[in-house]
Design goal:
Two copies of one chain form a homodimer. With 193 residues, chain A is mainly alpha-helical. In chain A, 73% of the residues lie in helices and 0% in strands. Chain A is elongated and about 60 Å long. The termini of chain A are far apart. At the A-B interface, helix 6, helix 7, helix 8 and helix 9 of A face helix 6, helix 7, helix 8 and helix 9 of B. The first copy, chain A, binds a DNA duplex (30 and 30 nucleotides) through helix 3.
DNA sequence: AATGCATATGAATATAAATTCATTTAAAGT
DNA sequence: ACTTTAAATGAATTTATATTCATATGCATT
């Protein structure tokens, strides 16, 4: 069972397609096998069981997602620009991999087997946001009286909401175009001044 | 099969408890029956099948939720106060019925069988927000240059994010206390001025 | 108390799909 | 060409649980 064989990846991507189309529970091993172009039994040479396929899928996708987010943020100076890049990168990656977007938005929260994995992902993201917000406060560009625990959920919740709508709309419009207007809302709010 | 018998309600609430604890797919009819204090077969006198239990659960809960939201908003004048009441009411109702909160946040988006039902719920909520935002613009208290399609998702996404955190934290703190700080973020944003 | 009707029971059935494994195919080494 | 090892197959097995249904219980009417 070598980790990075062609078949390993084919099964992962095949599973991604089937999970996105039918949801984890309605997806069958046979369908995944067919999508990946292998026999049912072959899957068990590479994965412990059905749950493990999803686990590895998430693991694989998040690792690469986090790396990209980190470099997008590090590529620039100042909290506001870092925040913009974070959101731009987030939306771009989800737009580029719609199966992943569907699985993360619709399946992941739901499945208890992977609850811990999800907690880690959220935590990573929220800690990242904290870092940026605190930087902005040090720079003097963000309010000092922010309840950071609330702000970071506010930020992540809103991006996810935007992505959910895009997914529900079958990806018919450009998701990345939402990034800057969204950040403007975070920063300035909706009240007239 | 009379609709509002004791057993009908007992099964619905029992199902709510089991769905919240184990998730829809891992929940078995036997467990729901036990929780409701009836025999397995009895459930089929009141519901077509397992999916129908969830469908009716959601229908029942949203109807009552929407009524409460509507009167909370109608009870006051001015967009800002209406928005505050909307969010307060939303958080209060979810805090008061944690099973419902779990099912709505974790299960509902996921289940394809009820996708239409969910679209209706979202639409109802988003239209409601549009109404309030447009009122605020007419009053001159909200910015004129808002992209409403984005703003309403921004608002709903953030509330849902707050609720998700609360659910994940096993409801250990007071959710309703988040309402006003959250609305302040919507209105004023995080940028220092 | 006997009859009929509605409601409830839970063991038996049916079904679907995850997982296994005996067999086949391909590849590598000598 | 022959042997050994590894990888792949897919039909057969196992398991789990949603759903059915023959039977029972309770309740009202006469």
């Amino acid at each position: 069972m070598k980790e990075k064989s062609e078949k390993y990846s084919a099964i992962l991507e095949g599973a991604g397609a089937v999970f996105a189309r039918l949801g984890f529970h309605k997806a069958t091993i046979s369908q995944i096998a067919q999508e990946a172009g292998v026999a049912d039994g072959t899957i068990y040479l590479y994965f412990k069981n059905k749950d493990d396929i999803l686990y590895q899928y998430i693991q694989f996708k998040t690792t690469s997602f986090f790396e990209k987010m980190r470099s997008a943020v590090d590529a620039t100076e100042g909290a506001e620009e870092k925040l913009r890049n974070l959101i731009r990168c987030h939306l771009k990656e989800f737009q580029n991999d719609r199966n992943m977007a569907i699985i993360f938005q619709s399946e992941v929260r739901y499945l208890r087997n992977i609850a811990l994995q999800v907690k880690d992902i959220s935590k990573w993201y929220l800690d990242f946001l904290t870092e940026i917000i605190e930087l902005g406060q040090m720079e003097g560009h963000l309010r000092q009286d922010l309840f950071i625990g609330l702000v970071k959920r506010f930020v992540l919740g809103a991006v996810e909401g935007i992505i959910n709508t895009w997914v529900a709309a079958e990806g018919k419009y450009d998701l990345t175009a939402m990034a800057d207007p969204l950040v403007d809302l975070y920063l300035g709010g909706i009240r007239k001044r």
